[in-house]
Structure formats: C-alpha cells, structure tokens
TrEMBL record:
Keyword Hydrolase: no
Every RCK C-terminal domain range: 345-427
SUPFAM superfamilies: Protein kinase-like (PK-like) (SSF56112)
Keyword terms, alphabetized: ATP-binding, Cell inner membrane, Cell membrane, Kinase, Membrane, Nucleotide-binding, Transferase, Transmembrane, Transmembrane helix, Ubiquinone biosynthesis
Pfam families in the cross-refs: ABC1
GO MF entries: ATP binding; kinase activity; monoatomic cation transmembrane transporter activity
Protein name according to UniProt: RCK C-terminal domain-containing protein
Residues annotated as transmembrane: 499-517, 523-541
Pathway recorded for this protein: Cofactor biosynthesis; ubiquinone biosynthesis [regulation]
C-alpha cells in the first residue's frame, strides 16, 4: 500500500464522515465493531447536520473529485432507485461543479496553444460556460472566420487526483477479492483496471476529439444525432476546441415542451442512436448522461440529439455483439432457456452451470418485463434481483460489457424523463432483427464474400503452394506430437519403475529392521538390508530426468 493510497483513503473516509454519511445508515445494519471504529474517529464530526441527505451525498462526491463525480452522474439517471431529493442534487453534478479561476484557465490554455489567446481567438469569455468534473469550458470566436467555438481545458492537477483515486480503488478491489467469497465472479480487479484505462483516456482531449470526429462522420447524414465539429489544429492533450452548439439540455422538459418537441420521436431516436452505435458502428458514446446531451432547436417536430463529451467510448468484439443481439431477441421472444444457453455458449458463465436452474432464475427475473411499456418496468429492481440470483451460479462480470451496461442505464433514464410511455422493446426489436439478418443467411454470406473477393482473388495464385505448405506443416505437427507422446510414455515408464524399486527398497528395510531384533535371524536381516540398498540405488539411478519429458 503506497503513501498516496493511505492518504487518499483517509481523505475519502474523513470527507464522508464530515458530511455525516455514516448517519444515513440505519443503526440496525451497523455491526458493533464498525460502531466502535466510528467512535474512535471522534474528531471527524458531522459539520453539516442541517443539510438534507441528498445534498450531503452530492457535496461529498463533489468534494472528492472527478472519479466520484462520475459515479454521481450515473446515479442521477436512476430515478427508479433514488427519491426526488437525491436525484435533483446528484443531477447538479453534471454541469454545476464549482469552476476554477479564469486566470488559471487562461494560463493553461495559452500554455497548450504556445501563444496568447488573442492571437487565435476573439471574444474569449473569462466566465466559464460550464464546469464539469474533469474540465471547464469557455466560449470564444475563431479569429480566422468568426465561427463560435468552445475551448475545453482540463482542471489543474486532475491527473494526480484521478491517479490517487484509481490506486485506492485497485487496493480496495484486491482486498475485496481476498475477503469476499464470490469475488472471483465479480472480477473486481479486472473491472477497476478497465475503468482505469477508460478514465485516463478521458484525460487525453486529443483522443476525445478523434472519438467525436469518428462518431460525427458515422452520423453525417442522420436526423437523429449531431456531433459538433472538432478543430483538431487547435486541440492538444489538455485542450479541445470545437464548434459551439445551440441546443436545449435534454433535461429541460419545460423548454422542450415550449418549442413543441415531439417527445415520442425523440425518445425513439435515443434508442435508435444507441443500437446503431453498438451494432452498426461498434463504437458507442459511453458517457451519455443528461449533461452531455442536448436537443436541437431547429426542427422540434423532427427532433435531433446533439452529443458532446466523447471522452469515453466503447466497443465490443464481434462474438460479444452477436451473443448480445441474440440475448436481446431471445428476451423479446420470452425464450428464457435460450438466454441461459447463450450465456453458457458465450463463456459468460461456467459450462458446469445447471442450465435448468439458471433458466428458472432468469425466467423469474425477466417475466415481469414481458409486454410492458418502459414506464412500468423498474430495471433497478430487476438488476438487484439478478445480482441476488446470480450468487447461486458461477456468473462472471465481463469487463468489456461494463461500459455498455452503464450506457443502457443512461438510455433508460433518458427514456423515463422524455416519454414514459415509450415501448423500448418495440423500438429496438426491428432494428436487432434486421441486424441479425445482415449477419447470417445466404445473402449475408454472399455480401461478406463479395467484400473479400478482391483479397481472395489476389491470394488465388498462392493457393496451391499454401495448401501444400499446410499439409506438410500438418504432417510435421503430427510427427512432433507422436514424438512428444512417446517421450512422455517413456518418462512415465521410467518413473513408475523408479517408484517401484524405491518402494521395494523401503519394504526390505522395514523387514530387515524387524528381523534384526531377534538373534536367530540376524543373517537374513543383513541379507535383506543389503538387498534394500541395491534396490534403492537401482531405483535412484532409474529416476528419469525432468528435461527428458
């Protein structure tokens, strides 16, 4: 454990206690040893007894910094798990984080640009447009063409803060895997390592710019999603310059209503955007909390999302995409046995899992979701039930699916706020069915062959030689395997012979010792002892060397 981990661990504990989070836990759930430990920390008193519980949690996460604010941002969309007070306060973490001084912002921007701001931009506004967990945004205009832009600059020392938090999370994950009985199923260290890679990628604003450009190009002609243009010539590791957009925050329901927004279409397009990114592009925006999503003011009857902050993105392997799509379709068709089979075939659960019991558990959890609109489904409770039943099986949390799961939570949260009557499944099912048709069948096979036909044609003259080489390689491989098998069998025969001789030697020694206790059998005892030594030496010399296997 490093000094930084100890220091950060104490800071997290101290901040939580100073905001009185320990008082939010009912006393009947606090074990005696934890109550005693809390009493020993008598100098860490609740300094905000008059604040509500939601504000206490918000201020604690806000004080602890970027990693904890990200956690609060995700929680703010879970209205089925949080009461209105908590949801309101946590939602403020999305764009109401206290800004740092404009003098420091100017200094860091000019350091990244290598020149004064006035050389490249006009109308730079010292008052930040927004202040988020790891960055701050200022507005300006390009000097060259007067285009309105925003300049996103990382917070001072945010890298050090994130490193300390991630190091603490890694430590807690290692402890958890040692102390928790089913920690292997959760893959705590793997999940934290995956999160570490994700959060550090978000600290490279050049990478965010590349992600935004890639998604922008994928949706270039789309009515569903618009991504602002990135000015890569001005962007750096800690600075991102992009087009300034004019949109309404997706959480501002009153403003969206006032402009006559088609909420049903808007909600359906949110589902469409998500599944298109995951299955068509295999590159999805994985930080779709409401603070990063706006709605265009141009065509409210034909609403278009505007997405920003593409620092966190995700992708899946082709196999995971296929299994995921089949799982969704099996769920839509209420085929819970197939879901259980797919989990096993994909390797997400052990092959030794009792498929009938697993199917029964899935059926119990999923049946309440059948044929219900989104407004009547509590995914939070379903997830809790799944985690509870998962303890009966060797279910493994897949790190590559963590971002996708989080994004699904965001999509659900937005759907609840925009159009509670949205039938998420009816919207997604046709998309998935069409995608599956494009992946399997004669037509899909023909299209894949046509795509690779030039490559196949280019390799065709080499085919006879490649076939011959592979046949020779296969024959040589079989010969090598036979030789290895022969060496292994020879090794085991010598090993068995050595064990037999050594065992016989041991038996003869015991017999010689027993006979030596009687005067009339001394000579036989000597003979047996001599024989024991001969067989023991023979067995030792017969022992095969390890490098002979």
């Amino acid at each position: 454990m490093s000094v930084n981990s100890l220091r950060r661990g104490y800071q997290v504990l101290a901040t939580s206690l100073r905001y009185g989070l320990d008082k939010l836990i009912p006393k009947q759930y606090i074990p005696w040893w934890l109550a005693m430990a809390r009493a020993c920390l008598f100098w860490l008193k609740d300094q905000h007894p008059d604040l509500g519980s939601g504000e206490k949690v918000k201020l604690t996460l806000q004080t602890l910094g970027a990693v904890h604010i990200k956690f609060g941002q995700m929680l703010s969309t879970r209205r089925d798990l949080l009461n209105d007070e908590w949801a309101m306060h946590l939602s403020q973490l999305q764009d109401q984080v206290p800004p740092f001084s404009s003098e420091i912002a100017r200094q860091h921007i000019e350091q990244q640009l290598g020149c004064p701001i006035e050389h490249l931009f006009d109308e730079f506004d010292d008052t930040p447009l927004a202040s988020a967990s790891i960055s701050q945004v200022h507005t300006a205009r390009l000097k060259s063409n007067s285009e309105a832009v925003v300049l996103k600059i990382l917070r001072p020392n945010v890298e050090q803060s994130v490193s300390a938090d991630v190091e603490l999370m890694q430590l807690l994950a290692r402890w958890g895997e040692r102390l928790l009985a089913d920690a292997h199923r959760l893959q705590l260290t793997a999940v934290v390592e995956d999160y570490k890679q994700t959060i550090f990628k978000e600290l490279d604003l050049r990478l965010e710019g590349e992600n935004a450009t890639r998604i922008r190009n994928s949706f270039a002609d789309s009515k569903a999603l618009y991504i602002p243009k990135v000015y890569s010539e001005f962007s750096r590791t800690r600075l991102l310059v992009m087009e300034r957009i004019d949109g309404i925050p997706v959480t501002d329901i009153d403003a969206l209503t006032a402009q006559g927004t088609n909420f049903k279409l808007l909600a359906e397009r949110g589902v469409e955007v998500f599944f298109t990114q995951v299955f068509r592009d295999n590159f999805f925006h994985a930080d779709m909390h409401p603070g990063n999503i706006f709605v265009s003011k141009v065509t409210p009857n034909d609403p278009q999302y505007i997405g920003i902050d593409c620092g966190i993105v995700g992708s899946l392997s082709e196999a995971d995409k296929r299994y995921l799509a089949e799982n969704f379709l099996a769920f839509f068709n209420h085929d819970y046995k197939k879901i259980a089979q797919l989990y096993i075939r994909s390797g997400w659960v052990s092959a030794q899992t009792d498929i009938d019991a697993f199917e029964a558990a899935i059926t119990e959890v999923c049946r309440p979701l059948a044929d219900k609109p989104l407004a009547e489904i509590s995914f939070g409770l379903v997830l809790l039930d799944l985690f509870r039943t998962a303890r009966q099986f060797d279910i493994v949390v897949q790190p590559q699916l963590v971002l996708l799961q989080k994004t699904l939570l965001y999509v659900e949260g937005l759907g609840r706020q925009l159009y509670p009557q949205l039938d998420l499944w009816a919207t997604a099912k046709p998309f998935l069915e069409n995608w599956m048709k494009s992946q399997i069948g004669v037509k899909a096979t023909a299209e894949k062959l046509s795509e690779r036909f030039p490559e196949i044609l280019d390799k065709l003259p080499e085919m006879p030689e490649l076939i011959y080489d592979n046949l020779v390689m296969g024959r040589n491989l079989l010969n090598q395997q036979q030789k290895l098998l022969d060496r292994y069998l020879s090794y085991k025969r010598k090993q068995h012979k050595s064990y037999f001789l050594l065992g016989l030697s041991g038996v003869l020694v015991i017999c010689a010792c027993v006979l030596s206790l009687r005067n009339d059998t001394l000579v036989p005892a000597i003979i047996l002892a001599t024989a024991s030594g001969i067989f023991g030496l023979w067995g030792w010399l017969s022992k095969p060397a390890q490098d002979n296997i």
